[in-house]
Task: structure prediction
Amino acid sequence: MHYEDIRALVDAGKTPSEIAAELQSRTVEVPNTTAWTFGAIESTIDETTARLIAGVVQAAGQSDPLMSSAFVALSTTGLQLHTAARQALIEQIGQAAGMTAEQVALVKELGLTITHPYAEVTEQDVTDCIADYNREQMRMTTWQAWQDAYNAHVSPVLDGTEPTVGNLIAGLQAALTELEGA
Result:
């Protein structure tokens, strides 16, 4: 988990416990680029679903060249089901085949896997992430303050025509004094 994953929740004033609970409930669709065939659908879901899809795609292929090529692909090399167009096609085939919503969902899941990337996130993980972010912000702020003090007091000495050790020490002391006041 990165701070950017939780920034909006932290900014909204949520507690680490609330953030962890919200993260745990998040899901992400991950494309599955497997080329699915009727046989793979049959072995993954069931024979009935594979036969329903095959019947509709084959019948539609009689008048639609795109569906005809989809039938050939599903019968041989396979067809990827993860794109938005293919997911919509699955819906249409499901309606035409009289498939149940559960069957359609199972076929759609072949193309898009739903994951819970934050299922194991705990309140302590969120607390640690916030602490790490705050430490990094402090480091960056301190580094910027040093850069500013160095540029104001040390760089002019080094860029001068005759920098001396004494002038350099005085510049460093002035930079440190500025940092102490920051």
Summary: The chain has ten helices and four strands. The first strand starts at residue 28 and ends at 31. Residues 123-153 form the longest helix (31 residues). The beta strands are 28-31, 35-36, 79-80, 112-115.
